[in-house]
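Feature request, filed as a ticket because there's no other form

It would be nice if the structure record came with a short human-readable summary line next to the tokens. Right now we just get the raw output. Example of a typical job, pasted below so the devs can see what we mean:
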Amino acid sequence: MPRHAIECLVNSSQKTRVLVIGGGPAGLMAAEVLSGGGVQVELYEAKPSPGRKFLVAGVGRLNLTHSEDSKAFLSRYGDRQGQIEPWLRAFGPDDLRAWALDLGFETFVGSSGRVFPAGMQAAPLLRAWLECLKSRGIRFHTRHRWRGWDEHGHLLFDTRKGRLRLEPAPLVLALGGGSWPQLGSDGHWVRLLADRGIPVAPLRPSNCGFETPWSAHFRERFAGRPVKSVALSFTGAGGRHFQAQGEFVVTGYGLEGSLVYAASGLIRDQIERSGSARITLDLAPGRTLDWLRERLARSRPGDSLANRLRKAAGIHGVKAGLLRECTDSMVWEDPSALARALKQLPVILHATRPLAEAISSAGGVLFEALDEHLMLRELPGVFCAGEMIDWEAPTGGYLLTACFASGFVAGRGMLAWLRRD
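Raw output as currently delivered:
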């Protein structure tokens, strides 16, 4: 729903004061919805300015959402599809594009199906959004770090001037997960809610890199190199299968990049379960096994492996390096075995990179602790939104869309609760 279509659900001669804690996309969207409901919105942010992670994520180009059909879009949320679907019905990809247009930013669909604002940058859009929110009467309080409640239910904040206590008020918590803590989402709220009896799943890395012990030679020669036009396959517990084509980057510690991020939840779970995960790479996704086998069999005796790969299959550089790293010389001498290795190269991943390095996090407040409006069942009047809820999604616009949508649902839910109350 575009901003101008948000209806007023609360009518009062004296405005009710409501709080939003957290200035990321979920918190800002909740504040926007609330500001259209006849209440006074006070937004508290721990950092010097709102939207810091949003800005960093959109430094190169801001991927707002994705253009694929609703069924495929919803499938990106894995086991949480049932819980996320109502959010997207309330505020989905088309609504997000309409919202951006309402702020003065047209959007377009890139070649990959991803949706970007004109100009591609996050900063102009965020700046326009904040100006709009301020014009709607929302008051921003930065450098206010939430510290929970005292024994009387007062809200506690650490500020530059010391400890601040505020009277209890209806509250939206949009505190993020545990990734990129330097930008504000450090997971400090987990203990605060757990102390109030709220069930919270441990925060874990999502959209993250993975470690494998490369040889010194491979690491020194290829760390930092992108691997393009490659397919990744992985089968996790319960037969859950991932297969997609894209690109990733070889790092000094292992692998990272969009293709790896898309499978990160399944890979992470497998590593946690058994200590390692075996992914399969197709280094020549445009070629069949038979075509490769026939071409490799034609190689001249005495040709080096590098020449055979380059001439027969167009494989060179980091792809050839990966093949050498993950196979042995017996494979290199057999055209059939070499062709199979190009189509099904095994890479064993041994560890997930730390949560602080991940793009996002899994875990958080369990859905069972929330009602359909994202209000905590044990704390009436307290709503949650964004990454602090137990769901995850890949990059590509899916993560950001659901953050916006959850803020919309939480804001609208609070207005409905205030009206009933």
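Something like this underneath would help us a lot:
Residues 1-13 have pLDDT under 50 and may be disordered.
The CA atoms of residues 189 and 202 lie 12 Å apart.
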